[in-house]
């Protein structure tokens, strides 16, 4: 597999120049500055709010209450981000995070997350994406992958129709072999970070499992094959949460004994 060598060399050189570790100790490739990404996140969030319908104020207050309780448990430096969360009108049970601390939750997720603890697992997960610089890592990985493929194309004389077809195959291989696995790793890592954060804030971490059981019931088991998905399977997510539950429960009990008992009225 000679064509893999330039890609591997490119990725290795890039990782040596900009290598760091995530909150869970996983090695990361980060090529972009925080200021650049935070500004991009701010602009994208502004556009979302201009183009997408938002929910009523009661829903905003409910989600904001949960987010505030979790953000209060972050280290002082991380609390300085411009943390903002909005609720958008959409039946799709989804949520997203943008660099800089900007988060969105669809009203469809409020239907699946039936109490504050379940929704705290969603909010904690999204905050976990931001804390772990996942947007930077995804963008950096895709940039390194594209650079590696362009090197292959220029050095191999792949200008014929057959060569272009091979480049398409290589692009698919890079997508399924490099980019998507990183995305699945991000989702699993955000699950773990979010589990700890919600527990530290006084939300019951066991409800994170219930949330994904609810998601399974809503989806009816319909999902793409794990190797073609940017997210782990729902069963895999439940297993990952349960594997880290003992530590989270210890943090939860400590939080409750210290008086952290969040009470966010559901609209």
Automatic annotation (TrEMBL):
One cellular component term from this protein's GO annotations in UniProt: membrane
Keyword field contains Calcium: no
An individual GO BP term: proteolysis involved in protein catabolic process
CC cofactor: Zn(2+)
Alphabetical list of InterPro entries matching this protein: Mito/Outer_Membr_Metalloprot (IPR051156), Peptidase_M48 (IPR001915)
Domain of life from the UniProt record: Bacteria
Keywords recorded for this protein, A-Z: Hydrolase, Metal-binding, Metalloprotease, Protease, Signal, Zinc
GO MF annotations in UniProt: metal ion binding; metalloendopeptidase activity
UniProt-listed Pfam families: Peptidase_M48
Every Peptidase M48 domain range: 60-243
Range of residues in the leader sequence: 1-17
Manner of cofactor binding, per the entry note: Binds 1 zinc ion per subunit.
Statement: the UniProt record of this protein carries the keyword Protease: yes
Family that this chain belongs to: Belongs to the peptidase M48 family.
Identification of the protein by name: Peptidase
Taxonomic lineage of the native organism: Bacteria, Pseudomonadati, Pseudomonadota, Gammaproteobacteria, Oceanospirillales
């Amino acid at each position: 597999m000679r064509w893999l060598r330039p890609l591997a060399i490119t990725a290795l050189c890039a990782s040596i120049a900009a290598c760091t570790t995530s909150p869970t100790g996983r090695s990361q490739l980060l090529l972009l500055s925080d200021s650049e990404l935070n500004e991009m996140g701010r602009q994208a969030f502004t556009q979302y709010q201009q183009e997408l319908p938002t929910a009523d104020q009661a829903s905003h207050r409910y989600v904001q209450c949960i987010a505030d309780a979790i953000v209060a448990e972050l280290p002082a430096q991380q609390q300085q981000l411009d943390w903002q969360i909005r609720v958008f009108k959409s039946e799709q049970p989804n949520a997203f995070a943008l660099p800089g601390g900007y988060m969105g939750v669809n009203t469809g997720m409020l239907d699946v997350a039936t109490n504050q603890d379940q929704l705290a697992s969603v909010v904690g997960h999204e905050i976990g994406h931001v804390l772990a610089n996942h947007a930077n890592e995804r963008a950096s990985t895709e940039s390194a992958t594209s650079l590696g493929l362009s090197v292959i194309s220029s050095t191999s004389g792949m200008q014929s129709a057959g060569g272009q077809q091979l480049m398409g195959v290589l692009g698919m291989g890079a997508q399924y072999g490099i980019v998507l696995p990183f995305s699945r790793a991000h989702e699993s890592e955000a699950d773990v970070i979010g589990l700890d954060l919600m527990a530290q804030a006084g939300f019951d971490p066991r409800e994170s499992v219930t949330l994904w059981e609810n998601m399974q019931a809503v989806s009816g088991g319909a999902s793409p094959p794990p190797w073609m998905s940017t997210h782990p399977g729902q069963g895999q997510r439940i297993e990952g949460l349960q594997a880290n539950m003992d530590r989270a429960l210890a943090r939860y009990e400590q939080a409750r004994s210290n008086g952290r008992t969040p009470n966010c009225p559901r609209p």
